[in-house]
């Protein structure tokens, strides 16, 4: 049963990663895309375009007294996982949706634990429905890709999981309230939190260099522009580029099967995977594709990000250590758009449920 739950949790994680996908017509996106009159571009042309951006303006004038920056995210995704054992097909399917609204604005009094010089708040929820059918085994022995004939399916785990997680954030913490119901049973809910500073330091940002109120000197950042660095890496992996500079800047990055294989090869090398496990073992489908869109308006402010993913791949038996490969199909659309009308109330957040230690009072031992 532990192996079954581990597989299911891994599958739900896969879906959760794809959940940040949606369309928002008000943000100029449609089906995980940003509309535009795109023209194919070389790496040099895209690099020149992004290095001309002033990254200090991406979030607007953060030094203004009335500054605010809102983001709206919607999400939906579908995935399936199939295992075939002794000509019997076992399929697990999952669908998910997610929404999140985020608002940052100039604040007069930053909280004691805040690491950024402005107020932040956000709220949203992700939901997933999983119907699973997975074979479990007793006395299974596997050597390489060959399973012993003594192995036999003794049981099939089958059922439904309804899972959700409510997410909030303020200037100090991100709050998570995941819950799950298995086969219509009792709902299990927990409450977790993580500090904003831990997240920033974990990303290598440290808090000091992110959306600082002291920036805004108008200087164009070209020396270590992270967008230019990303473009160079994606080009090496075989991605293709297109731009639309008619109003602001829109960039489309496309990864086809060949590029996805290159990405898998890079990941396997970094993970020091066994030499016999190659990108070919993952059998990425010929129609697999990833499209990434980035939009900046004519004032240099972030306008939208969109991603759409489609296709399938195989998790080889050598990695799963199961008597069968896992064939996975994913369809997802991603968009995150600037929204200065977003409304965040945090009415559903009860901080007492999260058990956050009280801040020490100055002068008390």
Count of helix runs: 6
The strand count comes to 15
Tell me what portion of residues adopts beta-strand conformation: 35-45%
Please provide the ordered H/E string of secondary-structure elements.
Answer: HEHEEEEEEEEEHHEEHEEHE
Category from helices, strands and their pairing: alpha+beta
User: What's the rounded overall pLDDT mean?
Assistant: 79
General shape: globular
Cα-based radius of gyration, to the nearest Å? 23 Å
- How much helical structure, as a percent, in the residues? 10-25%
Unreliable spans are: 1-27, 140-151, 207-223
Which tags fit this structure?
alpha+beta, 13-stranded antiparallel beta sheet, 39% strand, disordered N terminus
Can you tell me about this structure?
Strands 1, 2, 3, 4, 7, 8, 9, 10, 11, 12, 13, 14 and 15 form a 13-stranded antiparallel beta sheet that branches. This protein starts with a helix and ends in a 27-residue tail after the last strand. The protein has helices at residues 2-18, 43-51, 196-202, 226-236, 257-270, 317-320, and strands spanning 39-41, 68-85, 88-105, 119-138, 142-143, 146-147, 152-169, 173-182, 188-189, 192-195, 240-244, 249-255, 289-296, 302-315, 326-338. The protein is built from six helices and 15 strands. The radius of gyration is 23 Å and the shape is globular. It has 365 residues and is α+β, with helices and mostly antiparallel strands. It is 17% helix and 39% strand.
